[in-house]
Amino acid sequence: MGCCFSSDQEDRSKKPLVKGDPSSIMTQYSSTSQLTPDDFKAVKVLGKGSFGKVLLVIKKGTENYYAMKILKKKAIEARKQRTHTLNEKRIMQKSNCPFIVQLKYSFQTKDKLYMVMEFMKGGELFFHLKKSGKFTEERARFYAAEILLAFEYLHNIGVIYRDLKPENILIDDDGHIKITDFGLSKLGISESNPKAFTFCGTPEYLAPEILKNQGHDKKVDFWSLGAVLYEMISGAPPFYSKNRNEMYKNVLNKPVEMKPNFSNELSDFLTKLLQIIPEKRLSDMAEIKKHQFFHGLDWEALSKKRIEPPFKPRISSSTDLRNFDPQFTTEPIVESCDSTVSQDGLINPYPDFTYIGHDDILSTEE
Q1: Does domain 22-121+317-365 have CATH number 3.40.50.300?
Q2: Which family is it part of (predicted)?
Q3: For residue range 128-153, what is the model confidence (pLDDT) as tens digits?
Q4: Residue scoring higher pLDDT (15 or 159)
């Protein structure tokens, strides 16, 4: 889970199938059918972050497994992250892209927020990269292309992602990727309001303009793509240093070093993405798709997931967690009993947080 940070903080870590207005249907439904934590059974811990944890859960009365993100309101308020948290829910709720993790439900109790998402059994890209050391160019190219399609969708709806890193790239059963964790994303970007000014992100992948606090736009996402692509093929981020200040100096002053095993196409693509001056950075999606690094790629087929991924994770069952870090999955599930529903908009600062996905509306009404 990403977070905004100051210089002294450490952080690494369907179309609607119903008739009528979907929003009004969801409002009517959610007002009469309120989910609580008691509707789900916790199975395992999948991960932990600044404000809470992610659990593998099963919805009682079904065979459906989900990833449930549980956030503590006190922690969110203490870090002044209420707006970012609400934006995360809004972005996931409105997104309809095959390369973005889907939000299935959201609800709240007096002390906590719950976001129930599709469970990506392949785990984090970070887990597989750590296990392999580095990827082939073919494999990294595939992931980069699917990430670009996610960016294209987000940018078209006025969202800057701002937190691309291997931990936020998830792999599904077949080997396709989806990005998750929109806690740092910026909503409402347009031609008339193109820039954001919050200093946020994860240090290894921060664009220079964020470090300079000059204001930034969607071009920061292409910088972070360059940094992640570099890491996938070399095994480390391009400007990495254990000393954060040294790493920031590297980002602002040091030319990116191309490795001997990089192809000419890759080196050229990375050079154009990792441009310190935003205006010189390759950030036009049409130009990016035509770059030689993606030569021969059928973008239309890719957008429909008709290209076979170069890697398919081993998965034997819905609860096979071999693709997740044992550091988390072996943790005992310690979650306090907090099932008292908090009515949206009445006694809490998180109004309209409840969301019931269309699929569940249909299955309930039928």
Answers
A1: no
A2: Belongs to the protein kinase superfamily.
A3: 999 999 999 999 999 999 999 999 99
A4: 159
103-132 exposure pattern, b = at least 16 Cβ within 10 A, e = fewer? bbbbbbbeebbbbbbbbbbbbbbbbbbeee
Written as six digits, the tokens of 93 are 């709720």
Radius of gyration of the chain, Cα coordinates, nearest whole angstrom: 20
Q: 329: which 2 tokens?
A: 């999955």
Q: By the 8 A CB rule, do 100 and 301 touch?
A: no
- Whether pLDDT at 226 is above 90: yes
Which residues does the annotation place in the binding site? 69
Q: Which helix (H) or strand (E) holds 204?
A: none
Annotated binding residues for ATP, as ranges?
A: 69
Which residues are CB-neighbours of 125 under 8 A, at least 6 positions away? Answer: 143, 166, 167, 169, 170, 171, 177, 232
Q: Which of 39, 163, 217, 221 is catalytic?
A: 163
Cα 34 to its chain centre, rounded Å, is: 26
Domain at 125-303, CATH from 3.40.390.30, 1.10.1280.10, 3.40.630.10, 1.10.510.10: 1.10.510.10
**pLDDT tens, residue by residue, 292-313:** 999 999 999 999 999 999 999 9
CA angle, corner 123, sides to 296 and 258, nearest 5?
50
Model confidence at 24, in pLDDT bands (50, 70, 90)?
very low
